[in-house]
Amino acid sequence: MKKDIHPQYHKVVVHCGCGATFETHSTSKEIHAEICSMCHPFYTGKQKFVDTAGRIERFQKKYGTSYIKKTGKEPQP
């Protein structure tokens, strides 16, 4: 194996957007995350829908229910 070709591997602190921090190992000197296990909906059980600029409403307005495959069955409420 060649010597001195591997990057430095050291302990770093990861800073999340929610304010949580934790320590890990990385070749980076600093890590900033938008979401972590403390604020992720899968782990917290709280589901958030982020609708930027009404994308869902625009999609439904444009396509309505025509994008759903017609099966002859009425959807169950």
Automatic annotation (TrEMBL):
Pfam families: Ribosomal_L31
Listed SUPFAM superfamilies: L28p-like (SSF143800)
Keyword line: Metal-binding, Ribonucleoprotein, Ribosomal protein, RNA-binding, rRNA-binding, Zinc
Keyword Amino-acid biosynthesis: no
Binding site for Zn(2+): C16, C18, C36, C39
Cofactor binding annotation: Binds 1 zinc ion per subunit.
Residue spans crossing the bilayer: none
Quaternary structure and interacting proteins, as annotated: Part of the 50S ribosomal subunit.
Described function: Binds the 23S rRNA.
HAMAP family given in the database record: Ribosomal_bL31_1 (MF_00501)
NCBIfam families: L31, PRK00019.1, PRK00528.1
Similarity annotation: Belongs to the bacterial ribosomal protein bL31 family. Type A subfamily.
UniProt-listed PANTHER family: 50S RIBOSOMAL PROTEIN L31, CHLOROPLASTIC, LARGE RIBOSOMAL SUBUNIT PROTEIN BL31C
The protein, known as: Large ribosomal subunit protein bL31
Organism: Anaerobaca lacustris
Gene name as annotated: rpmE
